[in-house]
Amino acid sequence: MLHVYEFEVFKGQDGWLLAFPFDFDGGTQGADLAEVSAMAADWLKLEIEFRLMDGRDIPEATFGHEPTHEDGRILLVAVEASLDTVPAVTASEAAELLGVSRARVSQMLKAGLLMGFRKGRDSFITRYSVDARLREKPKAGRPKKAASKPKPKAAAKPTETC
């Protein structure tokens, strides 16, 4: 589905161009107009995809805004975003990529170690979260307990001398 929103672009104090959407919280930045435009499109696509995966509402777009900053200008950003545009693999494929069981993938989803969504009866895991998990290179087995600090030795008892 095509989503179109207005962003305000203006120069920040550090010289970067900042882009903030009128209908969402958040924003992005870039070194020049081409970069900030690409970053705004990327930001908007990811924001909509994450909202769809979480089952949250997508705000209705409003148009005709005026810049609120002295050097601000309006940037119209259009992106194609839906659950179909999310780079994802099935839960079984994620298990194979990660070298774990399908049940472990379900546990990892519930624990927030992987990100996924359901489409009908099928479960999908985002490639972003699978790739991030692979970069972490977690070790097999349970995490080891933190090493305990050695106990201080008791002070020697003073001896009496006569």
From TrEMBL:
Pfam families: HTH_17
InterPro entries xref list: HTH_17, TTHA1013/TTHA0281-like
Range of residues in the leader sequence: none
Region of interest called Disordered, as start-end residue ranges on this chain: 135-162
Residues annotated as domain Helix-turn-helix: 90-137
Ranges of Basic residues composition bias in the record: 140-154
Descriptive protein name: Helix-turn-helix domain-containing protein
